Amino acid sequence: MDKTGVMLSMLGTVKVLVGKDNMRDYRGARVKRTLVTAIECISGDGRYLDPMIIWPAATHRSNWTTFPTPGWQYACSDTRYTDSYISLQWLQRIFDPATKERARGKPRVLICDGFGTHETPEVLEFCFANNILLCRLPSHTSHKLQPCDVAVFSPLKAAYREQVKRLERGGVNTIGKEHFTSLYSPAREKAFTSKNIKAGFAASGLFPFNPDRVLRSMPKPLANLTIPKADEVNVEACRENELPQTPVTPVSAEGLASLRNLIIEQDAGALDETSKRNLQRHLHKLAKATQLSLAEGALHKKHIRFLLTVNSEAKVRRSTTSLVLGKAKVIGYEELVEAREKRAEKDAAQKAKGKGKRDRKRKSAAVDDDAAKPKTKARRVTEEPEPAVMLATTSTVAAVVGIETAPAPWRAPVARMY
C-alpha cells in the first residue's frame, strides 16, 4: 500500500511561445496547482484494489463524482494528506473487505512505508484483531523496495498527463476537481496492468523473494574511461558529387506534383548508382508525404470523435449543480450516489410544495372576489345620488311618499293693502 499525489493539470514538460517582453506573464497560467492524493494497493499476483481519493476540501461536492466509479472511496482533508482516521477507514472500508474472503483465515501481509499515520494504536489494534501482519519498510528505501514506486506510479502519472493533454486538445482550459475522476480512472486502467504490478514486486525483490535483485542495482564506482585524442581519429574525405542531397518533403499538392515530375523527368532515365540512390530518396519522400496526408486525415477523424466525447461529458458536469452531499470525512461512491438521489427528491418535493401553495393562494383569491361582488352591488344601490329638491309643500311630499303626517296648524290670512 502506498499513496501518491496527483497534480490536477500539471503536465510533464510544456513548451510555449511567448513574447520576449512578457516572459513572466505565462507563469502559472491555466495551471491549477491543486494536489489530490490517492491511496493505492497492489498484490504480488498482479491484482489491485479500489483506491481512496482524498480531496483537499472540507465537504464532498456533487459535481466532483459525476463519472461512475463504483467501489471507490472518497475522503476530505484540509491538509490534502492522509491522517490516522483516514488510514483506519481505508483498512476497514477497502483492504479488509477485499482480502478477507480470499485469505480464508490465513494471515494477510500489508507492506507500507514508515509514515506515522500507518502505525497508530487504532490501526495496530485493528490489524491484530483481523489477522493482518503490518510490515514497515526501512526509511529512505521506498524508491527501491516499494513496488508502487518502482513500476506503477510512474506509468500512472504518465497516463494521467496524457489524459490531461487530450482534454486540453478538446478545448478545456482549466482542469478542476470535477474532471479528476474521468481522467484518473482510465489512467489507472492503463497503468495498473498485471505485467506492471508483477514487475514492480520482482524488481523490488519482494515476490519472488530475491534481495540480490536490489543489491545488484546499487550504483558502482565508475571505471576509468579511455577517450581517444583528436589526432588519433582517421577522417576520410569524400568527393562533393558523392554527398547525398536529401530533398524536401512536400507539404502541399503543388510540392507533391513537383516531386513526381522530378522523379519522372530526371531520375527515371539514369541508371548509374548515384541516380538510383536519388530515385530511392525521392520515392521515399513521396511515400512519406502520402503517409503524412493519410495520417493527418485519421487524426482529424479521431479528434472529432474525441470532441464529441468531451462535449457529452461536459454536458453531464454542467447539468450537475455543485451541492454539498455530506460532511462525513470518508464516504463511498455508492453513498454519494444515494445522497445525490435523496437531494434531488428533496428539491423536487420542495418545488411541488411551493407550486401547490401558489395554486391555493390563487383559488382563495378568486373565492374572495366572488364573495365581494354582491356587496359591491349593494353598496352601489345605497350610494345612489339623492334626487333634486322639489319646491313643494309638506303635504305634497307626504302624499307622494305615502306617509301619514299631522295637519299643519291654522293661521289667519294676512291683510294686504291695495
UniProtKB/TrEMBL annotation:
Q: Which Gene3D superfamilies does the protein's record reference?
A: Ribonuclease H-like superfamily/Ribonuclease H (3.30.420.10)
Annotated DDE-1 domain residues: 32-201
- Basic residues: bias regions: 352-364
- What is an example of a GO molecular function annotated in this UniProt entry? DNA binding
Q: Where is this region: Disordered?
A: 344-389
Any one of the GO CC terms: nucleus
What PANTHER family does UniProt report for this protein, alphabetically? POGO TRANSPOSABLE ELEMENT WITH KRAB DOMAIN (PTHR19303:SF74), TRANSPOSON (PTHR19303)
Q: What is this protein called?
A: DDE-1 domain-containing protein
From which lineage does this chain's organism come? Answer: Eukaryota, Fungi, Dikarya, Ascomycota, Pezizomycotina
